[in-house]
Amino acid sequence: MKPPGSSSRRPPLAGCSLVGASCGPQRGPAGSVPACAPARTPPCRLLLVLLLLPPLAASYRPRAWGAAAPSAPRWNETAEKNLGVLADEDNTLQQNSSSNISYSNAMQKEITLPSRLIYYINQDSESPYHVLDTKARHQQKHNKAVHLAQASFQIEAFGSKFILDLILNNGLLSSDYVEIHYENGKPQYSKGGEHCYYHGSIRGVKDSKVALSTCNGLHGMFEDDTFVYMIEPLELVHDEKSTGRPHIIQKTLAGQYSKQMKNLTMERGDRWPFLSELQWLKRRKRAVNPSRGIFEEMKYLELMIVNDHKTYKKHRSSHAHTNNFAKSVVNLVDSIYKEQLNTRVVLVAVETWTERDQIDITTNPVQMLHEFSKYRQRIRQHADAVHLISRVTFHYKRSSLSYFGGVCSRTRGVGVNEYGLPMAVAQVLSQSLAQNLGIQWEPSSRKPKCDCTESWGGCIMEETGVSHSRKFSKCSVLEYRDFLQRGGGACLFNRPTKLFEPTECGNGYVEAGEECDCGFHVFQPRGYECRDAVNECDITEYCTGDSGQCPPNLHKQDGYACNQNQGRCYNGECKTRDNQCQYIWGTKAAGSDKFCYEKLNTEGTEKGNCGKDGDRWIQCSKHDVFCGFLLCTNLTRAPRIGQLQGEIIPTSFYHQGRVIDCSGAHVVLDDDTDVGYVEDGTPCGPSMMCLDRKCLQIQALNMSSCPLDSKGKVCSGHGVCSNEATCICDFTWAGTDCSIRDPVRNLHPPKDEGPKEMSRREGLILLSKAPSESAALDGHHLALLDSGYDILAAVLPKLLSLQTKPLGGNDYVAKVGVTRMG
After folding, report:
1. Are residues 693 and 777 in the same domain?
2. By residue range, what is the domain housing residue 772?
3. Are 246 and 83 in contact (CB under 8 A)?
4. Is residue 805 part of a domain?
5. CA atoms within 13 A on the CB side of 531
6. Are residues 267 and 404 in the same domain?
């Protein structure tokens, strides 16, 4: 399916669009100046003030809107009395803190009065106000308040002044986002939700990060190059007439460790194999196409959060407050994943059990995970992963549990997480989602190899219980990359539509929040390779020519042969016993001789079986011997994933003049899955695959079929059948059954010749309705009154000026300056 004439693979793009002209972004949190605008005060800020805060902008008098914040907090008697609440907060932190995150007295706390910075046109300066609200006046979406696209806050604490520049996180909620609660035993659905969740940076601090919500005071965190700061209101209820709202701000010191987890890790450290997993992953990485850009491409994890009943009760029995808590947590997680794993975490739904729990809430996370997996299958909302937040303390070494590598699966793309303070829950959720993405826990023995040397925060997947860590180690990143290379996470490449779409840079119009817009997107031609196949079971995607997005990531339908007919494709991976043995035991391992399976798995003993029924080993039938206990050669003394349950069972035979190794072991993951058995999808005979330890005909799997031609060939023999039962045609064929010849088009993208010359001409256009400040004129019916230029939606001319006056009725005449490229 490679295009003809392509002798070498190009590094894939993250999408199908080329930038035809430079484009000026909004002034970012770091204060960057757009390329196509002079260094000056950005008009986008002024426009926000004018449009969204009319009483403030009209008066130009700082004290007309509210009392200005003093330059430094002045503690009145109420604030002094509130200091006593810190003791209660200490107790709450210890109670709600996740079990693998220990509370430390070394954490410093203060009370502060944050202020919002308002920019004034006439003064060319910012003034602080203690009114923290970011709602845009007189604007709503789905009957919910709309919050400002940009905001800045000033926080004084620990002898320093922090200015946080924020941008609304438009990627947090999908367009289908829904909130669910229960009334009289029936689910109630609410479209959309209040969006007050921001990302940003500390002004003037390089590589700083901020993730805050502003729905009810400031909730969230910000970090500089040394510390992590957490902030939240001292009280949930606030008197709007008050001149300021006290907040608790906490500063973490150098990474704090849980003594319990540290001891546990030290006990396990000497059992870790000398074979470095990092070296194994590096070797595996070199074995696949090095030019693959699958990790660099932005991915989208569509997440649904479920809150149990105790979590709802904790938030004053308010499903709105509970939902806001969940969104605040996911906003924090998204800020970590997008920077380090090139993965956006997008909320598609939040469900709150307002009347009663829908499953049994227990202190046994394994049992609860299995029950929640059953409940997830009844949920009709689409999601790549569904996670439960429960106000329970697990009798377990960690604060979360999820199925390893289970993302995209309706049964295994789930996790359960302990409730706590937002930052603690964000770390726990980051860890359990990472498990869904094939990222393992890291004992202390791996720390030097994984380059996790952050002195102040440690790494997210460390088993030592580091507090408030926000960094994935080198090992974690490589494991995620390996997971993607093996075909995992296919659903992550389907970009969801955002609930709050930002202004579009490159559409030729200066929109709200933009300083300039200097050109149009140029799409790559149809047939340009935008996502290469990562393995034999994946499918290469090509640009369509009319979109900047690479098509959805698909793979071959289950059952296709791979690995020189030694394996079968299953869920996008090539399944063989050799591959499974190497994944568990390292690259020197391999699947044992067939004789081992035929002899041992029919005995029904510890050395070979098809599972266990109580205390009795189950014998495999002769038909199912290759779907039972996994038997390998060259095992290391410990597996590279999971934990040994018992000991390795070494067995060998003298067969046909040689000694053959038939060793096996029960290797159990955190979710109680025993990977010591042959995986589903592994071939067990001609046109046969394993499923639930049974060897079945592929035809018996009842998969949807792709179109056949008159000769019975799938996709007319000119394509492959995808996991969505659609034909993906070879490069020179088209049609739903790949029966139509499709001539090769120009595969070479247009050369970037730099900025093109622009010609400018003023003319008159007739508008069928009056334009507003935010109107996109290509959406109206236009009639050109002056000759020379055609103004069509397809051309999208840039409007350099716009002057209108009424002609009578609903018609307006506009004097415009239009430009045309080239």
Report:
1. no
2. 758-821
3. no
4. yes
5. 29
6. yes
- Considering the domain boundaries, does residue 537 fall inside one? no
Q: Which helix (H) or strand (E) holds 177?
A: strand 173-183
How sure is the predictor about 17, in pLDDT bands with cuts at 50, 70 and 90?
A: low
Separation of alpha carbons 545 and 498, rounded Å: 23
Structure tokens at 413: 């793309």
Average model confidence (pLDDT) for the chain?
Answer: 76
156 and 232 share a domain?
Answer: yes
Name the pLDDT band for 748 (thresholds 50, 70, 90): low
pLDDT at residue 527 in the model: 83
What mean pLDDT do residues 5-23 have?
A: 46
Residues 578 and 691 in one domain: yes
Sequence-ordered list of residues with C-beta below 8 angstroms from that of 383, at least 6 positions apart, any chain: 302, 303, 304, 348, 349, 413
Spell out where 208-298 has E strands.
Answer: 209-213, 219-223, 228-233, 247-251
Flag whether pLDDT at 23 surpasses 80. Answer: no
Contact 568, 35 (CB under 8 A): no
Q: Is residue 448 part of a domain?
A: yes
Residues 224-242: tens digit of each pLDDT: 878 889 999 988 676 666 6
Q: Residue 561: enclosing H or E segment and its boundaries?
A: strand 561-562
How many structural domains are present in the chain? 3
pLDDT over 90 percentage in the chain? 49
Q: Tell me, what DSSP letter sits at residue 495?
A: P
pLDDT for res 351? 98
Distance of CA 612 to the CA centre of its chain: 38
Reading the block at residue 776, the tokens are: 């996109």
pLDDT digits (tens, 9 = 90+) for 750-800: 554 444 443 333 334 433 334 443 333 433 333 333 333 333 333 333 343
Tokens in use for 247? 């907040």
Residue 56 has pLDDT above 90, yes or no: no
Q: How confident is the model at residue 663 (pLDDT cuts 50, 70, 90)?
A: very high
Among 701, 716, 746, which residue terminates a domain?
701
CB 411 within 8 A of CB 372: no
Domain check: are 466 and 586 in the same one? no
Do residues 594 and 566 make contact, with C-beta atoms less than 8 angstroms apart? no
Look at residue 325 and tell me if it is in a domain.
yes
Report the distance separating Cα 570 and Cα 555, nearest Å. 9
What count of residues does the chain have? Answer: 822
Contact 173, 345 (CB under 8 A): no
Domain shared by 674 and 783, yes or no: no
Q: From the centroid of its chain, how far is CA 790?
A: 43
Same-domain check for residues 181 and 97: yes
b/e map 44-81, b = 16+ CB within 10 Å: bbebbbebbbeebbeeeebeebeeebeeebeeeeebee
In contact, 292 and 485? CB cutoff 8 Å: yes
Handedness of CA 609, 613, 615, 621 (dihedral sign): negative
667 strand-pairing partners: 644
Q: Which of 760, 818, 751 is nearest to 19 (CA)?
A: 751
Domain stops at, among 668, 685, 701:
701
Q: Report the distance separating Cα 534 and Cα 290, nearest Å.
A: 10
